[in-house]
Amino acid sequence: MSEFLSLAEARERPGLRLAVLRGFPSPWSQAAKGLLHLKKIPYLACAAGKGEGEADLVAWTGQASYPAAMYEDEAPRSGWAEILLLAERLGPEPPLLPKNAARRALCFGLAHEICGEMGLGWCRRLCAVAAGYRSDPPDPLAVWLGGKYGYRPDSAAGAEGRVVEVLGLLDDTLRAGGGEYLLGELSAIDVYWATFCNLLTPLPPEKMPMNERMRATFTAREPAVLAALSPELIALRDRVYQRHLVLPVAL
What we know:
Layout: E1 4-6, H1 7-11, E2 16-19, H2 27-38, E3 44-47, H3 54-61, E4 68-71, H4 80-90, H5 101-115, H6 120-133, H7 140-148, H8 153-156, H9 159-176, H10 188-196, H11 212-217, H12 223-228, H13 231-244
Parallel strand pairs: 1-3, 2-3
Antiparallel strand pairs: 2-4
Helix pairs in contact: 2-4, 2-10, 5-10, 6-7, 6-9, 10-13
């Protein structure tokens, strides 16, 4: 991938197309790009171009969220698990899902705790939205994200606790796996953790350039969250990026 095509251009091309929200550090998009990079799967990246928007993405994929993966004439895929399974099929090496059924189920379960509804990423977004709504007037970015994640004061009430809970689970898993990778050897959940960790403590500006307002939105300040974010988990994020992903991160 060397450039972004418009949605209209990409729709006319063959092969694998990945629609991402350009200029925004979405961990779901960054994780999808990371999986494809690790497996050396060629793809065309596309984003909304001039005159395009949500309606164009809906017309192509049947939904309005990024990322979305379109392979040849197959049905579009927008869920993290669907994209992971497609990547495993198109690029079997290196395998990022365990072959053992029990460990595979563990991998999917942990991935859901990071990527799924009311998982780490979802709840971290709700925390950031709640903070944005407390400003006067409400932060426009928070209002936009709130619409995407169904923000309501009651839905955000337990979000911080869920973030703390998932961080504790990941920290325990990392220790049980030996401290190098979450399951002892590189798997999809290491990629998910590395990219989603940036919702809590973003990579430094030289490794992930973004404007300061956005960086502040993506930086956790809650004492309980900071206490649960262990140095070992941050070191894992840095290790995965250094060994397996692309730096600096392109938004």
